[in-house]
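Much of what follows relies on a compact textual record of a protein's fold. Here is one such record, which you should read through line by line:
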Amino acid sequence: MTIFVAGVHGAGKTFATKPACQKLGFVYATASQLIKEERGQATWDGTKMVSDVDQNQVALISAVRRIRESGALLVIDGHFVLRRAPGTHERLPIEVFRELGCSSVLLIRSPVPVMLKRLHARQDMSWSEAELAEFSKAEDVHSAEVADALGIPLKTLDSPTAQEVEAWLKRLSKDTDFTSQ
């Protein structure tokens, strides 16, 4: 079983998801971490611009398959949309998420000004408020498209705490009949 936790850079995915997974005993990994380990290198920079998108997805699928073979519940912290360049965003193919074995999606959102402040605190000044808003909308829309195409649950949380994420991860890991909200 793979739960995909999505959201824009700076939304708070890692902050809320990593401690929740540690408490629940779920395997937690970021998509970028798995890709980097599989490929032996990063193909993105500090401004979140990605090259080699197709090869990265092949590497991610391979890494996820290896983890899933252990029977562990895997929570992947990642994105449905990638940044090719400022203002250039690419939706990942639905087939990627099918190959990842996604059983549900947890979309984490935060207000654009909050995300922009977090990115600036990370020394990433390449984002404008307008681009971040556009990217956020694309992530929202494509997450719903993927969940619908795969027939899997999608839960959206706005600025959640680690406890809220923990509760939803627990529910999504057990409730295969969960209805999208």
Notes: The helical segments are 13-24, 31-39, 53-68, 94-99, 112-121, 129-150, 162-174. Residues 35 and 56 are 6 Å apart (CA to CA).
